Amino acid sequence: MTFQLRREEVLDGDRLKTMLDESPARAAQAILIAARENLLDAQALLGQILLDGQGIGQDQPLALRWFEIAAQRGHLMARNMLGRCHEHGWGCTADALVAAGHYRIAADAGLDWAMYNYANLLATGRGAMADQCQALDLYRRAAGLGHAKSMNLLGRYLEEGQYCPADPQAARDWYQRSAVGGDFRGQFSYAAVLADEGDVAAAMGWLRQALAGGNLNFLRVASKALASAADPQIRALAIEYAQRQTELERCPL
């Protein structure tokens, strides 16, 4: 089936993103046309849908190529995605050093996701010499830009006093902002604070949100942590976490 698309629709980057939710196949056709018309956002989007297989056949090497095209033209998220591809071996041989280089370029240009990804490599010493202080600085910068995952990690540094003075109140504030921002790990962290404060009802609400959005690795760790919680309501929730973990192991997303 073919679709007749108006030129202005094809070249409208915001419209393409909306179409991805409404009709992936129609959006994929529009994105392909727009990418060939040199629309920069469409070139980056084409890389993403090829990587995900959204509305189009999955093709990681071709996704990598479109990310390269968009990154060479200055698209920061495409540059960040090049880093992701090289970090995880999507369409290429995994190489953390190359990934770090791409992340650093996009981070220096102000992209919050690249700051977060580069900080993760610095924190673990992958692709770059381990540097917790620089990692903390990048998490702090990304958090200041509204990046929810970085907010949670900044809260962790502040809670534990790692490479900075401990500040439990600031940690609580960042956990709360991360939770509200939709990060499941931030929701879990904030729930832990609330539980320690005695607000079990509120903690349970955030734990259920974290359960709904959490990935497999998170659920594996979180279910064990909940099983040792002091409050019986929270301990009981560990069963639901374990059940969801089993579901994802059987049918991964």
Automatic annotation (TrEMBL):
InterPro entries the record matches: Mitotic_Regulator, Sel1-like, TPR-like_helical_dom_sf
Chain segments annotated as transmembrane: none
Domain of life of the organism encoding this protein: Bacteria
Protein known as: Sel1 repeat family protein
Natural source organism: Pseudomonas violetae
